[in-house]
């Protein structure tokens, strides 16, 4: 599971007043942050974080006046910035302003929020859907609300932080199984299923660090046999997998209703911001009336709902973009492998890691690429294990073969040198 530097772990007071414990500087995570900054300064490596973009981030981006080939943004189908998506958002702003200004239950709906939800439900072929203001918060509140102390949540070892946080909030027992290893999950459930009331299996449609995906039909068979719920997070698979971009169910040729909880985000293929859940009517009714992160949070801004609705319609009307994204992803993967780079288990769909084997090397390679006019994000420990530190390339349908060739050429040179 992905880790974040934690606030806990501060030295335990053994009694008496310790004023230093009431200062944020004494927290271990803060000290860790300073140590990393110092190491970067010593090695004269510029920080790759919080760079300021001036303009749209797609296959290219402008940072401090210089144009870069960009692999650090998951604007997979180029929806953010597309003319029809911008126009839909602008029209919604003119009509409704920039905020929904209160919770939907209390202060009422804007039609575009329901239109987006109905379009998502229809895209999946399920009863209904619900849109929330953040993808991360969607996992936290939905998992946190639906499950409790008598339940078990079992997730892929590489599940996103938001799934883990939701499981922790729920108070359920939380276990993980080795990445994509359905046989290990089956074995685990055979051992412990009897100890719990309800069980949730949480997996992702496409894993955002490795770019690989699960065998969905196996997980469906296992969840049925063990009487469990199955949740699939499609943050990175909507718009990426399946002939028309409908995600992993379309890719695997499976009826979407076989999965109990579909989750996704509006921040990638859907050119906006927010999260969604799609599924059966009882599930969506329950969440619409009770999920704290929906009920006690503002409604999705009409402009963002309109942008995501337009992006979804654009995706469904333009399968050629989905096909191009796939073709460019496969091309990147093939060329990277031919150059002797370690691309891990990537299946060549939109997310391609280049594993450097150490955080330091990931930082150095990212900097060298940046100097060559290429923006690619390094991933360090503790986001992944130290030996799995990497650069991560998000491919967009608009990336050209020339941009990919130029990038692989720099990577091949760096690889040859180390
Ligand atoms: N789930 C997964 C698998 C993710 O990768 C992310 C973030 N990229 C999220 C959920 C959270 O989504 P958001 O960034 O839209 O809040």
TrEMBL record:
Alphabetized UniProt keyword annotations: Transferase
Cofactor(s) the record lists: pyridoxal 5'-phosphate
Superkingdom, natural source: Bacteria
PANTHER family in alphabetical order: CLASS II AMINOTRANSFERASE/8-AMINO-7-OXONONANOATE SYNTHASE, LD36009P
Protein's name according to its UniProt entry: 7-keto-8-aminopelargonate synthetase-like enzyme
Aminotransferase class I/classII large domain: residues covered: 68-409
CDD domains in the record: KBL_like
Molecular functions per Gene Ontology: pyridoxal phosphate binding; transferase activity
Range of residues in the leader sequence: none
Pfam families: Aminotran_1_2 (PF00155)
Residue ranges of the region described as Disordered: 1-20
